[in-house]
Amino acid sequence: YSSAVQKFSQTLQSFQFDFIGDTLTDDEINIAESFKEFAELLHEVELERSMMVQNASDLLIKPLENFRKEQIGFTKERKKKFEKDGEKFYSMLDRHLHLSSKKKESQLQEADLHVDKERHNFFESSLEYVYQIQEVQESKKFSIVEPVLAFLHSLFTYNNLTVELTQDFLPYKQQLQLSLQNTRNHFSSTREELEDLKKRMKEAPLTCKLPGQPTIEGYLYTQEKWALGISWVKYYCQYEKEAKTLRMTPMDQKPGAKQGTLDLTLKSCVRRKTDSIDKRFCFDIETNERSGTITLQALSEANRRLWMEAMDGKEPIYHSPITKQEEMELNEVGFKFVRKCINAVETKGITTEGVYRTVGSNIQVQKLLNAFFDPKCPGDVDLQSGDWDIKTITSSLKFYLRNLSEPVMTYKLHKELVLAAKSENLDYRLGAIHALVYKLPDKNREMLELLIQHLVNICEHSRENLMSPSNMGVIFGPTLMRAQEDTVAAMMNIKFQNIVVEILIEHFGKIYSGPPEDTTAPPVPPPRVAARRHKPITISKRPLRERPVFFGASVEESGGYSCSSGLPAASVPVPRSRHRRASAPRPNSMAVCPLGSTADQHGQTPNGSGGVGLVARLQDGGAKPAGKAANGVVASAALRTATLQARRPAPRPGIYGREGECDGVPKPRSHGDKPVITRPPVRPPDPPCRAPVPPRLEQRPDLIAGTAEEMPSSV
């Protein structure tokens, strides 16, 4: 399993995303870097797991094998020696008892000396064998439990790391989920525009519109009036918008005709009324070179729409009110409509969930627009009445803005606004958009301020309506900004149009507090030598909490002995752990000793003694031994020999204080009470009762000078 996870981590590390377009959004950068963050996270977990497996060998298996070989194996050798010396002694004793008393006195004395020597050897072997048995029985109490305890510490250290990584991962997960949602919203918006573009391209496959240029060319039929009637002549036409020149090359030239290419200068273009001619897809143009109008016929409705857009064509007056040229501009009626819609939304629908995202009925939208833009009584509609719901009002407002002859943020500034949104420098982004806003015409800037202020008010209620600035950017980006040409490249820039609107919402106060000092856009910043200003989100690598040291941090700190067994620190295995994220020790910080007492950074309890001193006092019934070194190791020879004698075990110390206990020292219990083993909680709670912490020994010279009997019980 670990090997499979490691391979998966390597695959994530080497995976590369491919993106369409020349620039990535901040959310796309976060997504592109996410697999590397995942790979580092998995690698860190598996590295800790491998250390845990290594600790199982170093801390558990090897110490137990060494104890079996060294202690138990040595005891077996003592047993063999004891049995051999005993057999030798008893056989000699049998021979000695069968000696005749008639032998010489010197022979008998020599035999007695041999027997005494063998008896001494036998007694010495038996004493060493019994002592070795006792030593094994006593030492296995800590020599066997200690490796298991160390392994459990390593196991829980691994589990603790996974908990900490989870805590570090949660903020990153939330930020990445937000980036994913924003990217999904941009994708949905772009997909709708691309579907519409694909549909239009299918309807007019013969139309050739050069991307990014105002020139359009293709076949058109021209109405030619002759004395005997009317005919339609096919021309190949090329129109240059900047010069307003139309070149018409006839395609059906008759033999002997002198008709050649016509170069005309366009004055106006109007769509031909449907009921005024028996041909479809017609529009009229006026030129400087010819008097009267020239009627042209396009190949399809979509083709006619493209020619009229290129020629800035107008609609006939009789058409639906919303599509009149008067209402297609930012005029007084349009401002009145927008203000009434905003007032209605903020009055009765500002907390509606999904406001502006939920689409209203097309029939109701057209009904509202036709009623409001009625030329007989324009603007005479009460949007506060119950006849119009919020979905209809919001959809009507978006329809009006989307069908303006020129978007609110104008075609002229479209490219500069998109380039500003693509900048890696966040300060430049804001400064450039700030400057470009004040390049808009007065009416456009006034309308934009009116709309953005409204969107800010909507976003202030995002807890109720669930509409954030990012969501509003997705909705109003294509509405307030749209490219003049219909190309796939223009569709791929929709996400940057959304970012422009999002920046306007988030920084509305600064942008509309006044024009920048220099109304021109700031220069493009030079390539940065340092890293990108807006760095992708990463999993926070916060320092780990200090891990408790189970078997003594070092020989220097603990006086050459571990705080749990009294053995030299060099003989006790230390758990393997990584120190990459270890934090610096805090001043006066306390760590939890494995025996349950509170120890400072040097492994000392507040009374200046280590954990072994606490065990020794508990085993002696609470009395402190007289011969005790400063590091907590018992130095008295009497105490070492006393371990051979049978002794009633002392009460075990609790790991954490129970009721009526302080500093990990339990109350004396009666003979009838059973010892209670308490399992520590996930995190050590504060002791139920906290006795006054005694001063350290170096601060109490009177205690240092006194004997053990004079030490106060609280210490």
TrEMBL record:
<keyword id="KW-0343">GTPase activation</keyword>
<feature type="region of interest" description="Disordered">
    <location>
        <begin position="644"/>
        <end position="715"/>
    </location>
</feature>
<comment type="subunit">
    <text>Interacts with HOMER1. Interacts with AMPA receptor complexes. Interacts with SH3GL2 (endophilin-A1). Interacts (via C-terminus) with NR1D1.</text>
</comment>
<keyword id="KW-0254">Endocytosis</keyword>
<dbReference type="InterPro" id="IPR008936">
    <property type="entry name" value="Rho_GTPase_activation_prot"/>
</dbReference>
<dbReference type="GO" id="GO:0005096">
    <property type="term" value="F:GTPase activator activity"/>
</dbReference>
<dbReference type="GO" id="GO:0051966">
    <property type="term" value="P:regulation of synaptic transmission, glutamatergic"/>
</dbReference>
<dbReference type="InterPro" id="IPR004148">
    <property type="entry name" value="BAR_dom"/>
</dbReference>
<dbReference type="GO" id="GO:0048488">
    <property type="term" value="P:synaptic vesicle endocytosis"/>
</dbReference>
<dbReference type="GO" id="GO:0007399">
    <property type="term" value="P:nervous system development"/>
</dbReference>
<protein>
    <recommendedName>
        <fullName>Oligophrenin-1</fullName>
    </recommendedName>
</protein>
<dbReference type="InterPro" id="IPR047225">
    <property type="entry name" value="PH_GRAF"/>
</dbReference>
<dbReference type="InterPro" id="IPR000198">
    <property type="entry name" value="RhoGAP_dom"/>
</dbReference>
<feature type="domain" description="PH">
    <location>
        <begin position="213"/>
        <end position="316"/>
    </location>
</feature>
<dbReference type="GO" id="GO:0030036">
    <property type="term" value="P:actin cytoskeleton organization"/>
</dbReference>
<keyword id="KW-0524">Neurogenesis</keyword>
<dbReference type="GO" id="GO:0005737">
    <property type="term" value="C:cytoplasm"/>
</dbReference>
<dbReference type="GO" id="GO:1901799">
    <property type="term" value="P:negative regulation of proteasomal protein catabolic process"/>
</dbReference>
<dbReference type="InterPro" id="IPR011993">
    <property type="entry name" value="PH-like_dom_sf"/>
</dbReference>
<dbReference type="Pfam" id="PF16746">
    <property type="entry name" value="BAR_3"/>
</dbReference>
<dbReference type="Pfam" id="PF00620">
    <property type="entry name" value="RhoGAP"/>
</dbReference>
<feature type="compositionally biased region" description="Basic and acidic residues">
    <location>
        <begin position="658"/>
        <end position="676"/>
    </location>
</feature>
<dbReference type="GO" id="GO:0015629">
    <property type="term" value="C:actin cytoskeleton"/>
</dbReference>
<feature type="compositionally biased region" description="Pro residues">
    <location>
        <begin position="681"/>
        <end position="695"/>
    </location>
</feature>
<dbReference type="InterPro" id="IPR027267">
    <property type="entry name" value="AH/BAR_dom_sf"/>
</dbReference>
<keyword id="KW-0963">Cytoplasm</keyword>
<dbReference type="GO" id="GO:0030100">
    <property type="term" value="P:regulation of endocytosis"/>
</dbReference>
<dbReference type="GO" id="GO:0007165">
    <property type="term" value="P:signal transduction"/>
</dbReference>
<dbReference type="InterPro" id="IPR001849">
    <property type="entry name" value="PH_domain"/>
</dbReference>
<keyword id="KW-0966">Cell projection</keyword>
<feature type="region of interest" description="Disordered">
    <location>
        <begin position="562"/>
        <end position="589"/>
    </location>
</feature>
<dbReference type="InterPro" id="IPR047234">
    <property type="entry name" value="GRAF_fam"/>
</dbReference>
<keyword id="KW-0770">Synapse</keyword>
<feature type="domain" description="Rho-GAP">
    <location>
        <begin position="328"/>
        <end position="512"/>
    </location>
</feature>
<dbReference type="GO" id="GO:0043197">
    <property type="term" value="C:dendritic spine"/>
</dbReference>
<dbReference type="Pfam" id="PF00169">
    <property type="entry name" value="PH"/>
</dbReference>
<dbReference type="GO" id="GO:0043195">
    <property type="term" value="C:terminal bouton"/>
</dbReference>
